[in-house]
Design a protein that fits this description.
The protein has helices at about 5, 10-25, 35-45, 50-55, 65-75, 80-105, 110-120, 125-130, 135-155, 165-180, 185-195, 200-220, 225-230, 240-255, 260-265, 275-285, 305-320, 325-350, 355-360, 375-385, 385-395, 470-485, 520-530; strands spanning about 370, 405-410, 415-420, 425-430, 435-440, 440-445, 450, 460-470, 490, 500, 505-515, 535-540. The protein has 2 domains: about 5-350, no CATH class; about 355-540, no CATH class. It is elongated, with a radius of gyration of 27 Å. The chain is built from 23 helices and 12 strands.
């Protein structure tokens, strides 16, 4: 089958078709509703002055270079969901394009280059983050550009000036670090190999020292901010926890493509590359033992070395067959496995479209009150304002015959809300009476029973405060705060102030607290607070 790509023109045509195919796959999701992290980025950084973007680094949502590019995109093309995501989308296409010269320089194989390109085109984490206004795809593209620069440097050997590759790779490395501080974990292994291989090469040392000097200034300067951001990471109490974490990351990045990756580790023709690829994959994962582990997105650049090893495995299996039919069967089987993996990963990883979730939720009976997961309520309100607020208010005012129910939208049993400090908390409950599917989101239906006495253990008490003036809300809220210091607020971002016919501003609130937090004396006080302005229920 090599005749399909040994010809340079055929190879370029196939590569162009794969890039167009991958870019086309990344277009449909650009217009979907913004997710919570994207809303946070837009509201707190893209809309902020440059001084905030460069200094507010404690919250991981500020991917500095991405925030700058998104700000530029909106200023040039106007505000909109697609323009906000445009830098990440273009970076996704750059990942596909840059993988071609990087793989060619590493392997000298057009067939392997096409296999890697096909796997990147259909890799779902890479696809989804090319549709999200975050910095992960930009980091991935810059790290590939950095790798291309280093490989160009090692290939020069006096035939041409090495300095464009030196400064180009250094600029890409600095850009990656400015995008995400975790980029240093992906820079150290290739730079170490470069210095070792080209230890007498002044240009190689310069290429390593330039990003090292920048990191030596940048990280100490922002050490406190980066340390504060680590509270969102994962710690490991036992070795088994770490191995489970590493396995989940690798599976999330590669999925079923780990199958051809295993024989790729024993491809004798590629033994020289295995130490480099192994260190690039293992070093960031092992670093989690000293820092903290992150989600799959934190390790997105590992998709490239994993895909390269999988391509080595497919190439090795192809060489086991002398006839074209056998080689074709291997390639066809790998293609089917790749498509199956893409389908399963997409179903597992794609977040619900909150605009579509609300479109279906507003068709529910009026006695059902949807509750969005803590922080997700921020994105639900942003994508559906002001209709979602008016819908919630009408459901809070419900006085019909059918019993009132809460529909918690999420993946676990319980009620999810925010504390006064903004921390997301889940109050656990038992199995729901019924589940309701809204778009890709499973809702758990919990009937609300009016509170007339202390409920049984394991219940959650819910206080619904219908729309009322700010002064009344302040009085009623203070009474609840004194009684329930650990209460959480449900749908708090959605319950924005509304005006009545006279123009008076009215505000509604929903609070929840575990029944076990209240003493018998507290129950007497809670029951005494019942009124038209404070309605108490419980669910279990």
């Amino acid at each position: 089958m090599t005749y399909l790509f040994q010809n340079r023109r055929n190879f370029q045509l196939l590569a162009a078709l794969l890039v167009i195919f991958g870019a086309t796959l990344r277009v449909p999701g650009l217009g979907r509703a913004l997710e919570y992290d994207e809303v946070w980025t837009l509201e707190h950084y893209v809309s902020a002055p440059l001084s905030v973007i460069f200094t507010d680094l404690a919250v991981p949502n500020n991917h500095l270079l991405h925030s700058l590019l998104a700000k530029l995109s909106i200023s040039v093309f106007g505000a909109g969901v697609i323009t906000l995501r445009l830098p990440a989308f273009l970076a996704g296409i750059a990942v596909l394009l840059l993988s071609i010269p990087v793989t060619l320089r590493l392997t000298r194989s057009r067939g392997v280059s096409l296999l890697v390109l096909a796997m990147l085109a259909l890799n779902i984490p890479t696809l989804l983050y090319a549709q999200s206004a975050r910095g992960y795809e930009i980091q991935f593209a810059l790290l590939l550009a950095f790798a291309w620069g280093l490989l160009s440097l090692t290939d020069a050997h006096g035939r041409k000036s090495p300095w464009p590759a030196v400064f180009g790779s250094a600029a890409a490395a600095v850009g990656a670090v400015l995008t995400l501080p975790t980029s240093v974990l992906f820079l150290i292994p290739p730079l170490a190999f470069l210095v070792w291989k080209e230890r007498r090469n002044r240009a190689a040392w310069t290429a390593a020292l330039l990003p090292a000097l920048f990191c030596a200034v940048w990280y100490p300067l922002n050490c406190a901010a980066f340390r504060a951001g680590q509270v969102f990471g994962e710690t490991f109490a036992a070795p088994g926890d770490f191995f489970a974490f590493a396995a989940s990351v690798l599976w999330g990045l590669a999925g079923w493509m780990l199958i051809p990756l295993l024989p790729g580790c024993f491809n004798r023709r590629r033994l020289a590359l295995l130490p480099l690829l192994g260190s690039i994959i293992l070093f960031p994962l092992l670093a989690a033992l000293l820092t903290r582990g992150g989600g799959v997105r934190v390790y997105l650049p590992l998709v490239y070395p994993l895909s390269l090893l999988a391509a080595f495995g497919i190439a090795l299996l192809c060489r086991r067959f002398r006839r074209r039919a056998g080689k074709a069967a291997v390639v066809l089987g790998a293609g089917l496995l790749l498509c199956l993996n893409a389908h399963q990963s997409y179903e597992a990883m794609r977040e619900p479209d909150l605009a579509e979730v609300f479109a279906q939720a507003k068709e529910l009976p009026p006695n059902i009150l949807p509750v969005y997961r803590g922080n997700e309520a921020v994105a639900a309100e942003w994508n559906n304002r002001p209709a979602i607020t008016h819908d919630q208010i009408e459901r809070i005012r419900y006085r019909g015959r059918n019993p009132r129910c809460l529909l918690q939208l999420g993946e676990r049993n319980g009620l999810s809300g925010l504390t006064e400090e903004g921390q997301e908390v889940l109050l656990p409950l038992g199995e729901p009476a019924e589940t309701v599917k809204l778009e890709r989101c499973t809702g758990r239906l919990y009937p609300l029973t009016p509170l007339r006495k202390a409920p049984e253990a394991g219940s959650v008490v819910v206080a619904i405060l219908p729309p009322q003036s700010e002064s009344r809300l302040r009085i009623n809220g203070s009474a609840l705060r004194a009684l329930w210091p650990r209460r959480i607020m449900l749908n708090q971002p959605i319950l924005a102030p509304v005006a009545d016919a006279s123009g008076t501003k009215l505000i509604a609130r929903i609070f929840a607290v575990p029944a076990g937090d209240l003493t018998p004396a507290d129950w007497e006080k809670a029951l005494a607070l019942r009124s038209t302005e404070m309605q108490f229920y419980f669910c279990r």
